[in-house]
Amino acid sequence: MATLPPIVGPKNLETIPSRITESHKGSCLFKVVEYSSPKDYYISSDIFSIGGYNWNIEYYPFGYMTDDEHYVAFIIRLVSNVKDLAVKVNFTVLAQDGKSSSNFEFPNKIENGVAQPWHLPYYMRREKLEEPKFLNGDSFTVRCTIEVFNDEIKIHCFEIPPSNLSQQLTSLLETGEGADVSFKVGRDTIHAHKSILAARSPVFKAQLFGPMKGMKNKTIKVKDMEASTFKAMLHFIYSQSESLPEFEELKGNRAASIAVAQNLLVAANRYGLVRLKFVCEIELYKFINEDNLGDTLAFAEEHNCSLLKVTCENYLRQPSALTF
């Protein structure tokens, strides 16, 4: 039988919320004395607690509305400072033998402290209440049962393995498995996948799925580009890595790093790879100094490199601004 993955720390977690409704139920007895000679418009019970909330009962001997003289009325009031709460309330007038009688129950929503709908209190006909089995010694007892429904959001954490999509796509490039297009770059033949190239480059999309789509020769010649540059560009397309291996391998070799970055930037412009162009601009930005400022500015203007151009122009206006 399959088992759930273990609950782990915050890394690579997916939180799945689930709503669980729990209820808490309790009752309170409220005894009303001097029934025949009420002194107030309504009588309030002591505060009691059910479901973690405080309540009290209000008894209206003359009815809740002006035309309710033939009824007595009860209202349950939420004393705790809670705006909304789902409850079910049951009022039962007890017979003198303590047994239940004359139930009246409604599902309610507490809003602003009062059971809603507020204009529908719990009524009992006066003549019914005055029957001997309920009224004894000018008093009667009512039992209020409240069921509180709490919606609780519980979060379950499950470990999700990190994505290895870039590694899988890079593996396709390296092995050539499933390749359906080839490029002849210098003496090298490089295999790739049309759909991946078209998804990442608008130029490849037009080239592979435009007018040349039905060509019989599946090998495309790439002119004016070194094979190493084309391979590095494809590696970026497949891996989407911000740190190209070519840059890592050339650390410490300033001239070679600049040449690789410039060649890749030209390739990025040629194939509409905006993100790769930006990565190359940042790489070239690292090598700007007084000696290559003029050449870098000329390169930036020729290939529309806004980051490099602004940096060089700022330095020309204020040499001290160029700090690394």
UniProtKB/TrEMBL annotation:
Residues 25-146 form the MATH domain. CDD domains: MATH. One of its GO terms (biological process) is protein ubiquitination. It comes from the Eukaryota. Pathway: Protein modification; protein ubiquitination. Gene3D superfamilies: Apoptosis, Tumor Necrosis Factor Receptor Associated Protein 2, Chain A, Potassium Channel Kv1.1, Chain A. Pfam families: BTB (PF00651), MATH_2 (PF22486). PROSITE patterns: BTB, MATH. InterPro entries: BPM1-6, BTB/POZ_dom, MATH/TRAF_dom, SKP1/BTB/POZ_sf, TRAF-like. This is Uncharacterized protein. It comes from Rhynchospora breviuscula. The lineage of its organism: Eukaryota, Viridiplantae, Streptophyta, Embryophyta, Tracheophyta.
